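User: Let's play a game. I give you a shape written as tokens, and you guess the letters that built it. Ready? Here's round one.
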């Protein structure tokens, strides 16, 4: 019998229903997002998404961009990262604790 893959239910900053995704994929994308934001300080969402897709395209199973969107929203909902107000296209940074 195949072992059940661990899942995580993502959160959404607007309180919408989250998505159940693989904990391993969530962790991979979360680490990539946080690493880039910590390195850059502030980063445009499009740049973040493009760079993660480029880095993971050969080793990640699934649509990288879809996971980046889901995990980014989850990290916003958990108060770990935030959108910088009045930026277009929107920029992201670590949330000050």
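Assistant: Ready! My guess for every position:
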């Amino acid at each position: 019998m195949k072992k059940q893959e661990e899942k995580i239910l993502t959160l959404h900053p607007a309180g919408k229903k989250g998505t159940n995704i693989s904990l391993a994929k969530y962790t991979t994308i979360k680490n990539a997002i946080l690493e880039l934001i910590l390195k850059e300080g502030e980063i445009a969402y499009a740049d973040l998404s493009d760079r993660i897709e480029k880095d993971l395209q050969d080793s990640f199973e699934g649509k990288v961009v879809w996971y980046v969107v889901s995990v980014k929203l989850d990290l916003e909902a958990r108060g770990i990262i935030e959108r910088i107000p009045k930026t277009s296209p929107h920029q992201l940074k670590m949330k000050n604790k």
